[in-house]
Amino acid sequence: MPALPSLGLRNRATRNSDRRLRPASVPQSTTSVVDCGVYVDGERLEGTWSHSEAVAEVRRRHSGFVWVGLHEPDSHQINGIAETFGLHELAVEDAVHAHQRPKLERYDDTLFMVLKTVRYVASGTLTANSEIVETGELMAFVGHDFVVTVRHGKHAGLARVRQQLEQDTEQMALGPAAVLHGIADYVVDTYLEVTDAIQDDIDEIEAEVFAPHTTVETELLYLMKRELLELRRAVLPLTKPLQRLSEGNTPMVPEQVRSYFRNVDDHLNTVSERVSGFDELLTTLMDAAGWKITLALNTDMRKISAWVAIISTPTMIAGIYGMNFELMPETEWSFGYPVTLLVMMVACVVLFKIFRKNKWL
């Protein structure tokens, strides 16, 4: 990866000389705040900050930015942060209530992006009530000197993303847009991981569908289709927002960061192709499973019909001789009864061999 410029921020010696330590006892402003950090020249300032103190420090320096991470805040918890950073009330409402489609909106000098997060739920045996894909949401408010992330769901925490970005000071020096890229890249990478896991499940089902003498429950195929629909709802709507971020239609994103968004967009296209392929394959497997079930039913019906034909032959002969007419062949013959039984047995054996040769039995 080529080195990225620091966009004219102050050198590290100056930054280290005026770094201030904050007391560890400073409380966060809301209970939903997971982390709040101040970043100058790509490095995080030491200490514990409230969101108001953090943004005041950044604006006093006229450089750097603040990254505040929230987890499932309510309206009361997010109001103070929204007022401090000047967040639009409609975007704040979306961030609180969640259940949004992936999108990218601009409110004055603030970008608001919604991403769907997914997690593969591993289970030993698939059943009709299994959950394969668990979804959540990530919202990001991006301004010229701040990033506010809001997470909904038990998975997709951003601690690892924050740690990786903090280790790459050149990337962080690009500002809030670099954080937005890191989040988008992380989310799309999880899509790839989920599709890899789903591919294994589909391969297993496919092998079972075409295995001899086995029947796949159609409920499992419908389950896979339903869970795949959840993944499609997360992936497909994200295409246009990423294209906007990578094509230069958003002036708040520097050119150095746009190239990284193009890479994320390429990965998303790979995921979209996989999801479309999975959907087509599952449709084919459902048709194949249906035909296999129909073939099994036809085979059973042929077997039943063959046995009915075999049984009906001695029944017919016994029925004729059961009419008790006096002038019937061999009724007075001493060997008439065993000969009749022999004819019945021979007829049954002949019919059995004919049906077996024709693979009805």
UniProtKB/TrEMBL annotation:
Catalytic activity, as annotated: Mg(2+)(in) = Mg(2+)(out)
UniProt keyword Secreted present: no
Residue stretches spanning the membrane: 304-323, 335-355
Pfam families associated with the record: CorA
Species this chain originates from: Halosaccharopolyspora lacisalsi
Keywords, comma-separated and alphabetical: Cell membrane, Ion transport, Magnesium, Membrane, Transmembrane, Transmembrane helix, Transport
GO molecular function, one term: cobalt ion binding
Highest rank taxon of the organism: Bacteria
Compartments (UniProt record): Cell membrane
Annotated family: Belongs to the CorA metal ion transporter (MIT) (TC 1.A.35) family.
Name of this chain's protein: Magnesium transporter
Region (Disordered): 1-28
Gene Ontology cellular component list: plasma membrane
UniProt function note: Mediates influx of magnesium ions. Alternates between open and closed states. Activated by low cytoplasmic Mg(2+) levels. Inactive when cytoplasmic Mg(2+) levels are high.
Membrane topology: Multi-pass membrane protein
SUPFAM superfamilies: CorA soluble domain-like, Magnesium transport protein CorA, transmembrane region
